[in-house]
Design goal:
The complex is a heterodimer of chains A (390) and B (629).
Chain A (H helix, E strand, L loop, with lengths): L1 H24 L15 H25 L9 H33 L19 H29 L7 E8 L2 E6 L4 E4 L2 E4 L4 E7 L4 E5 L4 E5 L5 E5 L5 E2 L7 E4 L11 E7 L1 H20 L6 E6 L2 E2 L3 E4 L4 E8 L5 E2 L2 E3 L2 H5 L6 E2 L3 E2 L2 E8 L4 E6 L8 E6 L1
Parallel strand pairs in A: 1-5, 4-11, 12-15, 14-22
Antiparallel strand pairs in A: 1-2, 2-3, 5-8, 6-7, 6-10, 9-11, 10-11, 12-13, 15-20, 16-19, 17-18, 17-21, 21-22
Helix pairs in contact in A: 2-3, 3-4
Chain B lengths: L2 H19 L4 H27 L7 H30 L21 H29 L10 H35 L8 H9 L1 H10 L16 H4 L3 H29 L12 H32 L13 H35 L6 H15 L17 H10 L1 H15 L8 H24 L1 H7 L3 H31 L5 H27 L14 H31 L30 E3 L15 E3 L7
Antiparallel strand pairs in B: 1-2
Classes of the chains: A alpha+beta (390), B mainly alpha (629).
Chain lengths: 390, 629
């Protein structure tokens, strides 16, 4: 709110001040002081050096103390944050020098009428050579540290990771599989804390980019290629408590690029094991047949055949999602409400996203009565409806 | 009077009457008419070939692409190539040119008219694409998106991007390059005046294609058009591809023309070390445009073939390689950012020297910096691809080359700061914009280091940090210099002074609005907001509100610019030949200059920037020939 007020004040205030300045500049009555005598070269150098030192001190203080990223939840993220800080510290003196010169020349500029010609300084002397040597030296330093030294640490892949995760991007969602643990194509990414993870990433259609802001790492998902990242989550965190803990597509991929995000959660090892076990069991049961459906929802020609599903409160229901669109991805996801779905809050229940023709069972138990929202996550605007629990 | 002389007088009278009678839009309407004829012909040929092969006669993208090639030829012939050029090849008299204000709507070979045509066209496109930016900021007032749906948002963002890129490529080179390079080197015109006209008249089809694409669904792949998305999306993409290929042709012809002009048409005494720095910067940019533009055009041609001819350069399922496109694309598009910004550097240094009333500091180092950037620019392209999934062995070499390029860029800063140092600054509007450019590009350059460093780029690539960075380099580096040039040369081009008060209001509003818009965007990048999104997480709303408000302020600054231009053009004080008391050649002739630029051929006898140098001769003298004396 405060920002908005400030913004409005500036938007209204600055043009007014400027208009006033322009109006007053036209009056001859606003007399300008007569020409200011130029500083001697020594005075100029000393004043600028003092200004430079002050700006550098201020800049170094800021660069060393400010938190750059709101949340750093991986080991590689720590390394990247460190590299950022080193680069920031290295660039402060350079930035301060340019600012000091600019400020000095404006403040001590003399008058605004057509001035006398200035001193005829060209490039005699050692200044350009010194400038070249210093900038080249600084560049060489940051190239090696943090550049090349942290590069190898950040891009190195874990040969024997504790956990292997396959991630597939498709317009416009992510499918996550844990191939060693019997869980495939789920739409949330859960990871155990303090375990090394290797991601193998690909795409089914166009370019996507695998990005978890809290991990500070990203790499593109390219059709026909497998790209790899490895890291170790170091903080228990979830999308519910921090919006940067999400898997976000970072490469423009068409219509719903902006919504191509799934929640990420870093949990304790025991919680992770329990979750995997539950998912693996459910998927095994689904594969074996499972209980008879209580409702059948047909997805055909990019439409669901029902706008309303009714289930009994407190009883296990099984909805059979019959995707009849050949080659087209659909799923069924139940949300608290339509706005909850729009805000990318996690679904209460969701079936796998699979290309048709395929039949999938979604088991769910609604604990309280009410009207909920269901949709196909791949076609959120055209395939949606109400789920009523009575 | 002989019969022959009478005939000549009569012919001249007829020519003059024809010129008077010619409606102002005759050239453009002629071009459009012949474009339509060409289009119909192209579509008919496609239909014929398809029918013979047993296909349906009409296939939107094939028919349109072939139709466009014919339409483009028709447009160029109709707009003036036939009347002013082809007739001569056939040994027949060419049609007379037009005079007065109608020249600006016609196919002419006067570099000054072409310069104004470029400037006005691209400033108009700049303001239009700026309105699209306002729409983008309106959308981002709310985390769920305030006004647009995803499709319209993606199309708006893509259109904003490509029009602004086109503006950045052509506005300084095409506008000021055309108008002032020949004058600054003491020439009468460019080396190839007709090619010059051709390169301008290729531009209207580009603008029409990009805007007309919206009628068939637009395109949602940004200005980068990465496949496979650009192979499978809406029909608007084919319009985009054809526009890029056309625009590329224009750029290449322009680059060639500038190089030949500067190499061969310099006035006597205009040695390479007496060349104004702006001319040097155009030479540098022209080398880049001539060398690299074809890579973008080729990439777009391959995407077009994937769409209309069933090739599979980029279709992964059929053995294509999406990463291949990115290499070819950036092989042009990284040098392209120097095509944007080098003329900006040159223009800013030019203004800094004249308004600090001091010699350009370390002139030879600055030239070395420009040429060093040209040399390095071909070796850094893959820094745009650190997260693309390319082989990781490429990461370290491109980290190294990219960081090296900051050294020649540093020479430009050395020259700018040395020129300002202890100067008696004359803070007129052009000077304010030139100094603003130094400040902005400082931020643009420093933040570039974080994107050149692979580890930090892994977190920042494709986020708002990148958006902030490239707006700082392009708006901050080139567009601020562009406006320095607009105000600096306004008296020379129009013969009238601009309004200083309005000019300074424009500067301060634009400078403050620009910095308050783009500085907070770096923070959005840290906070996890990626590029090209129409919605974002709710925690970033406060910052986005602030940015949008400041962006509207930035937009409002251009109201003062337009007011100033219109008012000064009609009512401004008459400008003298040299209102800035500057030494360079354009100020040694009338405002505006005569058709042949100088009343007498100039001879260069001194440096362009020797302000306050004891005993320095003038930059040039105009030699009066015996006949005139």
């Amino acid at each position: 709110m405060g920002t908005a007020v400030l913004a409005i004040a500036l938007v209204v205030g600055i043009p007014l001040i400027m208009a006033f300045l322009a109006w007053s500049a036209e009056r001859p009555a606003v007399a300008r002081p007569p020409a200011v005598r130029r500083d001697s070269a020594t005075t100029a150098t000393v004043l600028t050096a003092v200004l430079w030192a002050a700006l550098t001190a201020l800049g170094l203080y800021v660069a060393a103390t400010v938190d750059i990223y709101p949340l750093i939840a991986s080991d590689k993220g720590e390394e990247i944050d460190h590299a950022f800080r080193v680069l920031a510290i290295a660039s402060v003196p350079v930035m301060a020098l340019v600012l000091a010169v600019l400020l000095y020349v404006i403040v001590r500029r003399g008058h605004d009428a057509l001035p006398e010609d200035g001193p005829a300084l060209r490039d005699k002397g050692a200044v350009p050579v010194a400038w070249f040597a210093i900038t080249a030296g600084l560049t060489a330093v940051i190239m090696v540290y943090p550049g090349l030294t942290s590069l190898s640490k950040v891009i190195d892949l874990e040969d024997e990771p504790d956990l292997l995760v396959h991630v597939e991007g498709l317009q416009w969602t992510w499918l996550v599989s844990y191939p060693e643990l019997g869980v495939s194509n789920v739409r949330d990414l859960k990871l155990p804390v303090d375990r090394t993870v290797k991601f193998e990433i690909t795409s089914r259609d166009v370019l996507h980019s695998f990005w978890v802001p809290a991990f500070l790492m990203k790499i593109d998902a390219v059709p026909g290629l497998t790209t790899r990242l490895s890291l170790r989550p170091e903080v228990e965190a979830s999308f519910d408590t921090d919006p940067t803990v999400r898997l976000q597509c970072a490469e423009l991929c068409g219509l719903s690029h902006t919504n191509m995000t799934i929640p990420v959660e870093v949990v304790s090892r025991s919680e992770f094991d329990a979750w995997i076990e539950e998912r693996a069991k459910a998927q095994a049961a689904a594969a074996a047949g499972g209980p008879a459906p209580t409702f059948t929802l047909v997805a055909k020609d990019l439409k669901f055949d029902a706008k309303e599903i009714t289930v009994e409160v407190g009883k296990a229901a099984v909805i059979l999602v019959d995707n009849q669109d050949a080659g087209v991805l659909h799923n069924l996801a139940i949300y608290l409400s339509e706005s909850s779905a729009k805000k990318s809050e996690p679904a209460l229940f969701a079936s796998q996203t699979l290309p048709g023709p395929v039949q999938e069972r979604l088991q769910l138990t609604m604990e309280k009565a009410g009207t909920f929202f269901f949709r196909c996550d791949v076609h959120p605007t055209t395939m949606a409806g109400k789920l009523i629990a009575k | 009077m002989t019969a022959e002389a009478r005939l000549r007088t009569r012919r001249a009278a007829i020519d003059a009457r024809r010129r008077e009678a010619q409606p102002a839009l005759a050239w453009i309407l002629g071009g459009l008419l012949w474009a339509l004829v060409g289009f119909v012909l192209g579509v008919a040929i496609t239909a014929l070939v398809r029918s013979i092969a047993g296909d349906s006669a009409w296939s939107f993208e094939q028919s349109f692409a072939v139709g466009y090639v014919f339409a483009l030829s028709g447009w160029l012939l109709g707009v003036g190539v036939w009347d002013r050029w082809a007739l001569e090849w056939l040994g027949r008299p060419v049609k007379p040119g037009v005079e007065g204000w109608k020249r600006y709507l016609a196919f002419t070979t006067d570099h000054k008219v072409i310069g104004v045509q470029y400037l006005v066209t691209f400033l108009t496109l700049f303001l239009l694409a700026g309105l699209f930016a306002m729409l983008i900021r309106l959308q981002l007032l709310s985390p769920d998106g305030a006004v647009l749906d995803n499709d319209i948002y993606n199309r708006t963002m893509s259109l904003h991007g490509i029009i602004m890129v086109a503006v950045a490529v052509a506005v300084v080179i095409g506008g000021f390059g055309n108008y002032f390079v020949p004058i600054l080197i003491g020439a009468e015109d460019v080396a190839f005046p007709r090619i010059n006209a051709l390169s301008f008249w290729l531009i209207p089809p580009v603008a029409i294609l990009l805007l007309a694409a919206q009628a068939v669904g637009g395109w949602d792949s940004g200005w980068t058009a990465y496949p496979p998305l650009s192979v499978t999306n809406a029909h608007g993409q084919i319009f985009f591809n054809l526009a890029i290929i056309t625009f590329g042709l224009s750029s290449i012809l322009g680059g060639l023309n500038f190089l030949v002009t500067v190499i061969f048409l310099r006035a006597p005494g205009m040695t390479w070390t007496r060349l104004p720095i702006f001319v040097w910067s155009i030479v540098a940019a022209a080398i880049l445009a001539l060398t690299f533009t074809q890579f973008f055009a080729a990439a777009m041609l391959l995407v077009t073939l994937d769409r209309i001819a069933d090739t599979s350069f980029f279709k992964a399922a059929e053995g294509g390689a999406p990463l291949l496109y990115q290499h070819v694309f950036w092989f042009y598009s990284h040098p392209a950012v120097y095509i944007f910004v080098l003329p900006g550097f040159g223009l800013a240094l030019e203004v800094l020297s004249h308004f600090a009333r001091k010699p350009l500091f370390a002139y030879r180092w600055a030239v070395g910096g420009l040429l060093g950037i040209v040399a390095m620019s071909a070796m850094v392209w893959a820094h745009h691809m650190f997260v693309s999934g390319m082989s990781s062995t490429l990461l370290a070499p491109f980290l190294v080359t990219t960081e090296i390029i900051s050294v020649p860029t540093g020479f430009i800063f050395l020259s700018a700061l040395g020129t300002l140092w202890m100067g008696n600054l004359w803070l007129k509007t052009p000077m304010l914009f030139a100094m603003g450019m130094v400040f902005n590009f400082l931020i643009g350059g420093i933040t570039g280091i974080f994107l050149a460093d692979v580890p930090t780029d892994l977190s920042l690539s494709d986020t708002y940090f990148v958006v902030a960075h490239f707006h700082y380099t392009i708006i901050g580096g080139e567009i601020f210099a562009l406006f320095a040039g607009v105000y600096y040369w306004f008296p020379k081009i129009t013969g009238r002074m601009y309004d200083e008060g309005l000019g300074q209001v424009h500067f301060w509003l634009m400078f403050i609005g620009f910095n308050l818009t783009f500085l907070p965007m770096f923070a959005l990048g840290f906070g996890g907001m990626n590029r090209r999104v129409s919605t974002y997480t709710a925690d970033l709303q406060d910052l986005n509100l602030f940015i949008s408000a400041m962006a509207f302020l930035l937009g409002a600054s251009f109201i003062f610019f337009v007011l100033n231009m219109v008012y000064s053009l009609l009512k401004g004080e008459k400008a003298e030949a040299n209102p800035w008391r500057a030494r360079t050649l354009e100020w040694q002739t009338s405002s505006p200059p005569p058709v042949e630029n100088f009343p007498a051929p100039p001879r260069v006898i001194g440096g362009p920037y020797d302000y306050g140098v004891p005993g320095a001769p003038a930059h040039a003298v105009l030699e009066v020939t015996h006949e005139q004396a």
